[in-house]
Amino acid sequence: MLPLKLAKSHFSSTRSGLLKKLIAESSNEDESSCVLQLYDVPGGAKTFEDITRFCYGVKIEITSLNVVSLRCAAEYLQMTEDYGEANLVEQTETFLNEIFSNWPDSIKALETCEEVQPFAEDLHIVSRCIDSLAMKACSDPNLFNWPVAARNCKQNQEDDHALWNGISRDTRLSQSDDWWFYDVSLLSLPFYKRLIIAIEAKGMKSEAVAASLIYYLRRFLPLMNRQSSFTDTGHATIPNTSEADQRALLEEIVELIPNKRGVTSSKNLLRLLRTAMILSASPSCRENLERRVGAQLDQAALVDLLIPNMGYSMETLYDIDCIQRILDHFMSIYQPASVAASPCIIEQGALMAGADALTPMTMVANLLDGYLAEVASDTNMSLAKFLALAIAIPDYARPLDDGIYHAIDVYLKIHPWLTDSEREQLCRLMNCQKLSLEASTHAAQNERLPLRVIVQVLFFEQLRLRTSISGWFFVSDNLDNGHHHSGNVVLPNNDPCQRDTAEGNENLRERLLELEKECSSIRNELQKLTKTKKSWSILPKRFGFRKKSES
Question: From the centroid of its chain, how far is CA 312?
C-alpha cells in the first residue's frame, strides 16, 4: 500500500487516469489537498517515485533495468495519450521496441520481468522478450553487430580432444554457436526454460541446445563441476542452492535435453546420471538418463562408467545394476535378429582383421571387458552379477577374447575361494579359439585356470599352428613349382622380380622356422604338464593327441 498526498492544484495537471479518478472521488471543494491509498503498484515505491516526478514534469531516465516496471506501472495508472501527449505508456513502449533490437538490453529487461511478472505477462512483455532473444540466438551476432558478452564457454569444449563418431567435436559445435550460453544462464529457470523451447522451435541445432542446458546446470549444481576439469571462475556455481532445488532443477533440465542420439557426449550424460543418483532424483529421471546413455554407449569411456554405488546396501563398490540396465538398453537397440555362427578354427590374422571394423557392438564389447576387469577386483562382486554382465554382449561381438580372459583372470585372483564348478562356469565365458598367441601363452601357464581350460587352450593353439604351417608349406610348394615351370628362361641378376621372389622365399623360411619353434615349445609344455599331473593321463586319448609327435 502506498499512501499518496496530492495538492488540489495538481488535480488538473496529473497525467494518470487512475489518479484523476481517485482524486475526484476523494477531494472536496473546501479541501486544498487529498490523501490517496494505492495498492499493488507494479515496481513498488521506487517506480512510483519516478512516476510521481514524471507527473510533476520532471524528466526521468528510462533504462533497460526500469523500463519494464515503468511500463507496467504506467498501464496500471492509466497513463495513456488520453491524459497527455507523450505520456509514459507511449514513451516506455517506444523504448521497449528499441530494446528488443539489442541482445544485452533484452536480457536485462527479461530478468526484471520477474519482479512484475503478472503485469508483464498481461502486457506480453515476457513473450516479446523471449521471441526477440530466440531470434537473435539463432542468428550470427557478427552479421548484426550485436554487442554480446565476450565470455569463453570452456565447459562446452571440455571434450574437444575427444572424437564424436570419428569426427572432431569442433565440427559439431563451433565457437560461434555458444556465444549466448552465459547470458541466458543468468535467467531464472521458468524464463530460461521458455527461452530454450523458443530457441529450439526456431531451428537451433540440437547440439547447441543440449550444450546450453549442460552449461546452465553447471551454474547451479556443484556436483556437475566436481566431476570435471571445469575451472572457469567466470562460470562458478551459484552458492546456497538447496538440495531440493538442485534436484528439481536437474529433473527439469533433463526433460529439456533433445531426445536424439549424440546431441551431448556420453561423458555429460553419465555425469548427469551420477548427479541424479547423489541427489536422489526421481526414478523416471534416472531411467531417462540410463536410456540415453544406452543409446550411445559405444561413445562412452571406461572411467565414466565407474559409478559409485549409492544404494543403502552398498553391496559392491560400483553400481553394477545401473550398468546392467544401460547394457540392456543398448542391446535392445543393436541386437540383430539373427547371428551367424563362428567358424570352429579361426586364424589369428583373420581375428585381427575383424577387430578393425569397430562396430558399436564391438566397441561396447571392448568397453565391457575393461569394466569387468575393474569390478572384478571388488571382493564383494558376486559371480552371478559378473556372469550376467559378461553374457549381456554376445560372443560374436568380440573379435578377440583377450579382454574377457583378463577380466576372468583378475576375478579368479581376487576370489580364490571359488569352487571348481564355479571356476568352470566362469571360464565358459571365454572362447579359447579366439585368444591371441600372447593370451594363449599366458593361459597355458596360468595355474588359476581349471585343467580342462588349459588343455583346451593348448589343443586349439596346436591346431592353429598346424593349420598355419600347412598353409605356409602349400605356398612354398607353389613357389617351387613356379621355378620348375620357368624352363630355360633366365632372369638377369639385377631383375627386381627375381630379387622380390628371393626375399619372399627367405621370409617364408623364417616364418616357418618360427612356427616350428612355437609348436615345439607348446609340445614341451604339454609333456611337462603330463608328467607332473597324473589326472591328465586320459586327456591325450580324449583329444586325439599322438604319443610321438612328428615334425
Answer: 27
Q: How many whole angstroms separate alpha carbon 64 and alpha carbon 46? A: 15
> Do residues 204 and 137 lie in contact, with contact meaning Cβ atoms separated by under 8 Å?
yes
* H or E element, residue 298: none
Task: Determine the Cα–Cα distance for residues 459 and 478; give it in Å rounded to an integer.
Answer: 29
DSSP, res 434: G
**Residue owning grid cell 575427444:** 162
Query: CB-hemisphere CA count at 13 Å for 36?
Result: 19
How far apart are the C-alpha atoms of 274 and 309, rounded to whole Å? 10
Which residues lie below 8 Å from residue 374, measured CB to CB, with a gap of 6+? 302, 306, 318
Look at phi and psi of residue 60 and say left if phi exceeds 0, alpha if psi is from -120 to 50, else beta: beta
Evaluate whether 271 touches 304 at the Cβ level (below 8 Å): yes
Q: Are 36 and 19 in contact (CB under 8 A)?
A: yes
- 90 in the Ramachandran plot: left (φ > 0), alpha (ψ -120 to 50) or beta? alpha
286-324 as b/e, with b when 16 or more CB fall inside 10 Å?
A: bebbbbbbbbbbbbbeeebbbbebeeeeeebbbbbebbe
Nine-digit cell string for 503: 626375399
Phi and psi angles of residue 2, each rounded to the nearest 5 degrees, phi first: -120, 110
Say how many Å lie between the first and final Cα of the chain, rounded.
108
Rounded to whole angstroms, the Cα distance separating 491 from 498 reads: 7
**DSSP character for 342?**
P
Grid cell, residue 301, equals 569411456
Instruction: Please tell me the distance from the alpha carbon of residue 524 to that of residue 518, in angstroms, as a whole number.
Output: 10
Question: Of 387, 402, 515, 411, nearest to 457 (Cα)?
Answer: 402
pLDDT in tens, 501-517: 556 556 656 666 766 67
Task: Determine contact, residues 175/144, Cβ cutoff 8 Å.
Answer: no
CA distances (Å), origin 447, targets 61, 65, 67, 348, 409: 87, 77, 81, 24, 10
385 Cβ partners below 8 Å, 6+ apart? 316, 320, 324
pLDDT single digits (tens) 429-488: 888 888 888 888 888 888 888 888 888 778 877 777 766 666 555 555 555 555 544 444
Secondary structure letter of residue 318 according to DSSP: B
3-state secondary structure 35-90: EEEECCCCCHHHHHHHHHHHHCCCCCCCCCCCHHHHHHHHHHCCCCHHHCCCCHHH
Q: Quote the CA–CA distance of 361 and 334 in Å, as a whole number.
A: 7
Distance CA 316, CA 314 (A): 6
Cell of 443: 593361459
Type of residue found at 350: A
pLDDT at residue 357 tops 60: no
Element (H, E) at 394: none
| Backbone angle region of 166, left / alpha / beta, with phi > 0 → left and psi within -120 to 50 → alpha | left
Does the model's pTM come out above 0.85? no
Please check whether residue 23 is in contact with residue 48, taking contact to mean a CB–CB distance below 8 angstroms.
Answer: no
